[in-house]
Amino acid sequence: MEKQNQIKKDIVSWSRNFPVDRWWREKHNIPFMSAAHREISFLDQLFEYYEDEMYESIKNEDRYEPNRGEFISENDSKSKIERAREEFEREFLKDGR
After folding, report:
1. Among 25, 44, 45, 78, which is disulfide-ready with 82 (CB 3.0 to 4.6 Å)?
2. What is the pLDDT of residue 27?
3. How would you classify residue 55: left for phi > 0, otherwise alpha for psi between -120 and 50, otherwise beta?
4. Rounded Cα gap, residues 60 and 7, in angstroms
5. What is the pLDDT of residue 75?
6. What span, in angstroms and rounded, lies between the C-alpha atoms of 83 and 86?
7. Taking the mean position of all CA atoms in its chain, how far away is CA 20?
8. Does the pTM exceed 0.85?
9. Residue 80: which H helix or E strand, with range?
10. How far is CA 22 from CA 30, 40, 42, 64, in A?
11. Pairwise CA distance, residues 5 & 8, whole Å
12. Distances from the Cα of 18 to the Cαs of 7, 23, 46, 67, in angstroms?
């Protein structure tokens, strides 16, 4: 019985010390110390966590609406594409080629 209590304490300790690991296992429904859990790299878990956090923070900010936004705007005399082309020509075609 004492050994089982120690195992439970170790699992709880692991989850507290490595919260990203716990988050990843819950997200993918992966049991603790299963083959899938042992195969994943902590860096892979961390990058997935940061990616999810990043997209969660911007998902409502950059909602696509057709024919709206800064990329194509009827109010601009020049589109961003035209300005980018002119800037490219200024920088890379300075000698008139």
Report:
1. 78
2. 94
3. alpha
4. 43
5. 55
6. 5
7. 14
8. no
9. helix 80-92
10. 9, 12, 11, 33
11. 5
12. 16, 9, 10, 45
Q: What share of the chain is helix, strand, coil (3-state, %, to 5)?
A: 65, 0, 35
Question: pLDDT digit string (tens) for 22-72?
Answer: 999 999 999 998 999 999 999 999 999 999 888 887 776 666 666 666 655
Tokens of 46: 């961390």
Determine the pLDDT at residue 88.
78
In this structure, what token pair is assigned to residue 12? 């709880």
Q: 49 with 20: CB under 8 angstroms?
A: yes
pLDDT at 31: 92
**CA distances (Å), origin 10, targets 3, 5, 26, 40, 71:** 10, 9, 18, 20, 53
